[in-house]
Design goal:
Blueprint: H1 8-41, H2 45-69, H3 74-77, E1 83-88, E2 94-97, E3 105-124, E4 127-145, H4 153-166, H5 168-192, H6 206-209, H7 212-234, H8 242-272, H9 280-301, H10 304-326, H11 329-364, H12 379-436, H13 442-473, E5 481-484, H14 485-495, H15 497-502, E6 506-510, E7 517-520, H16 522-539, E8 545-553, E9 556-564, H17 573-576, H18 595-605, E10 609-615, E11 618-626
Parallel strand pairs: 6-8
Antiparallel strand pairs: 1-2, 1-4, 3-4, 5-7, 8-9, 9-11, 10-11
Helix pairs in contact: 1-4, 1-5, 2-4, 7-8, 10-11, 11-12, 12-13, 13-18, 16-18
């Protein structure tokens, strides 16, 4: 089915079939409706035939009277008619007849018809009176034959009455089946609209690219022309002729194909999302909106003081024009005084408000060393400015105290780490010397191994503390150079291949074929990758996959690390990147809780961004850098 929607021959066949199906369905539906209507109205086929025949005999009787009066040869003219004729005068004398008593008769009908009527005016004392006088008057009796041919409309209609009432159920079933097949073909054409073989997505043809409102006007114009043609044929008096019926059928098919073309164009436009956007009305409204937005942006960029002056000027000129229009000097004088008195006052208020606004914006941007000048401010504006200056001073003192605290904290960590480092180095050296000696027992060897392992762990913790302190304060030297991320990731995968195998972790590395370069410090970026992969080896669920993806999008490079956590992560991503915080709340694994904090600080020093996303047991780390173009 999906392949057929792209096939042009299938679409052409569907259009042909749906047209034929529509005609057959309409025919079956009309016959079914006629059969039901005749059954409800007449009850039996004989009564229905009589009713139809009598309605036609009345019209035929009028024509027979006219032909007899004009001296037409009735014998030859009505030799093939489905009725016999008896013409009598008003005295009931037979003037002409072709009635044959041996021919079975369905029904008869008598028409009293006046011929060649003309007006006659008589003058009376009350005024003129006009009467209609007939040259002749006849009683026309028509006898419908029981066995009719199809030489005239009456014979056709009687035959249709018989057929529709006799096969009523068949026509109903055919009409229902025709409707279902019509809907199936219509759905297929809607699905195939906008699809072209060899092309992905929706392909619009030239007609579908015409603005939809113009396309609709064109469609309505064509439909109007065809409707006018149908009306002309219908009211031309030859509706029952074969040529007229053929023309009506052709125009009806053309109307349907035109409507189908319009509907399929709508379907293609809806799929492509251009139904409303590709209209002249939409273009005009969008242009008007852009103009209004541009005007609004222009007004917003005007300084506040100039806005106030502009409003004052507009109000003044509006009052001036109103006063001149009303020819009221008093109103003109009042408006002038209003502008002279209230204008400067409003201007001063605007100036004070602008000073407060600029001062508040400086405070919000972090400038705590530029107080607001309140020496020339008015009343409440001065008090409000003093309050903002007080807030600025309080914030400045708070920031200074916080920075001092951070410096003390950093110095404390650095000093303590250095103080620990000296004796720790001695311990590590002496443990190394002890390991070189022959130890008397296995227990002593185990003790020495514990000392060696824990002293190495303490040394790493000390180094991490110093590095975290330097990274958070920006005291690390950073040398930004072009770096190939793909090469660094491949090296990282090679370095950790053995550790990943030990934990039954499968690394899936995905990166583009072309080189992806960023501006970074290769040494620090390697440390970031090292920390992240080390955490994965420690905390990932064994026998799972680890995904590392390198992606580029809109000038940004994203390095994504994903793994399934071994333990539940009941902690937020921001809290997890704080110092000394570990995802393993039981602290059953090695680690200091500084790895992610150090990694984030190093990434930020290289003008990047590090984000952590936690979704159940899925742990994802995203590093983002600006892509370096060749």
């Amino acid at each position: 089915m999906n392949k057929l929607t792209y096939s042009l021959p299938a679409k052409i066949a569907a259009v042909f079939l749906i047209t034929v199906m529509l005609l057959l369905t309409l025919l079956a539906g009309a016959m079914a409706f006629a059969g039901v209507a005749f059954s409800l109205q007449a009850g039996t086929a004989d009564i229905a035939r009589r009713q139809v025949t009598e309605s036609y005999l009345y019209r035929y009787g009028q024509q027979v009277a006219q032909d007899f009066y004009l001296g037409q040869d009735l014998a030859s003219r009505y030799s093939q008619a489905n009725y016999m004729i008896v013409v009598r005068d008003t005295a009931d004398q037979v003037l002409w007849s072709n009635y044959d008593a041996a021919v079975p008769v369905l029904t008869s009908f008598t028409v009293r018809q006046s011929v060649d009527r003309h007006p006659v005016t008589n003058n009376t004392p009350q005024g003129s009176e006009t009467t209609w006088v007939a040259q002749a008057e006849y009683n026309i009796t028509l006898y419908a034959k029981a066995d009719m041919n199809r030489q005239d409309a009456m014979g056709y209609l009687v035959s249709l009455v018989d057929t529709s009432m006799r096969n009523q159920a068949v026509f109903i079933v055919l009409a229902v089946l025709g409707i279902l097949l019509f809907l199936v073909l219509l759905v297929f054409l809607f699905c195939s609209a906008g699809r072209r073989k060899g092309s992905e997505g929706i392909v619009l043809n030239r007609a579908d690219r015409i603005p939809f409102d113009l396309f609709t006007v064109f469609f309505l114009a064509l439909a109007g022309v065809q409707g006018a043609a149908l009306s002309r044929i219908y009211y031309a008096g030859e509706f029952g002729s074969v040529i007229a019926i053929l023309l009506l059928a052709v125009l009806a098919i053309a109307d349907f194909l035109l409507l189908l073309w319009y509907m399929l164009s709508i379907a293609a436009r809806v799929k492509a999302g251009t139904l409303l956007r590709n209209t002249v009305v939409f273009w005009v409204l969008r242009l008007a909106w852009r103009v209004l937005c541009a005007i609004g942006r222009g007004i917003r960029q005007i300084p506040w003081v100039w806005k106030v002056l502009l409003v004052i000027g507009v109000v003044f000129f509006a009052n001036l024009l109103a006063a001149l229009a009303e020819r009221a000097p008093a109103s003109l004088l009042l408006g002038l005084l209003e502008a002279l008195v209230l204008g400067p006052l409003v201007f001063l208020v605007a100036v004070n408000q602008r000073k407060l606004k600029l001062g508040a914006e400086r405070i919000a941007s972090g400038d705590l060393n530029s107080p607001i000048d309140t020496s020339r401010m008015l009343w409440d504006f001065k008090r409000f400015g003093d309050s903002l200056n007080s807030i600025q001073g309080g914030l400045s003192r708070a920031v200074e105290a916080r920075m001092k605290s951070e410096r003390f904290k950093t110095e404390l960590i650095t000093n303590v780490s250095h103080d620990i480092k000296t004796p720790l180095t001695s311990i590590i050296n002496y443990v190394g010397l002890i390991k070189q000696q022959e130890l008397p027992s296995q227990t002593v060897q185990d003790y020495v191994a514990v000392l060696d392992r824990q002293s190495a762990r303490l040394k790493k913790l000390t180094d991490d503390l110093v590095e975290a302190s330097k990274a958070s304060t920006g005291n690390l030297a950073v040398k930004l150079e072009p770096a190939d991320i793909g090469v660094l990731l491949a090296q990282t995968a090679g370095e950790y291949a053995e550790r990943l195998d030990e934990q039954s972790l499968e690394l899936v590395l995905s990166q583009p074929d072309e080189a992806v370069r960023v501006l970074a410090d290769g040494r620090h970026l390697w440390r970031v990758f090292d920390n992240l992969m080390s955490n994965i080896c420690k905390y990932a669920q064994p026998a799972t996959r680890v995904y590392v993806n390198l992606e580029t999008d809109a000038g940004q490079v994203r390095i994504v690390f994903r793994n399934i956590s071994r333990s539940p992560l009941n902690i937020s991503s921001e809290e997890l990147m704080e110092r000394f915080v570990r995802g393993d709340s039981a602290r059953s694994t090695e680690g200091s809780g500084l790895g992610l904090s150090i990694a984030r600080s190093l990434v930020e020093l290289q003008q990047g961004r590090m984000q952590i996303h936690i979704d159940g047991d899925l742990f994802k780390t995203v590093l983002t850098f600006a892509q370096l173009r060749a």
